[in-house]
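User:
I study polymers; will you set down one protein's sequence and backbone structure tokens?

Assistant:
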Amino acid sequence: MKEILEITKTSRNMVSKLIQGYTLEQLNKVPEGFNNNLIWNVAHIIVTQQLLVYKLAGLPMMISEELVEKYRKGTKTEHQATQEEVDEILSLLHATVTQTEKDIENNLFQNFNEYPTSTGFVLKNNQDSMEFNNFHEGLHVGVIMSLRKLV
């Protein structure tokens, strides 16, 4: 699973670089034809990783329920993120992966609750959830790249 996490780290580094230098206004802008903005996409990948990798393993998540409710699958941008919220999200972007790496080393991922994804793929174990998470993050990296051109 450590090898799979290297892809997640690469994804998170890309996301960090892609949004670097954007103002709070730009991070919050929802372009015409889109439901979400740059910062929503960043928070969404954090929330999704925590749900797929931790919650399905029966482990406590490193994020608040408030963050989950704002950025989980099926949500859309409904508020302007404050600078404080953006700072928290950007901190979690790397902190969650650092903690996941430690938790893999400490062999914490022992249990898993099977989960059928909206794509039709059934996650059967912790490795599946981490691999699917990378697929999911890749989709949102693409969205972030598109949004950057419009803000």
Observations:
- The chain has one domain: 2-148.
- The chain has six helices and two strands.
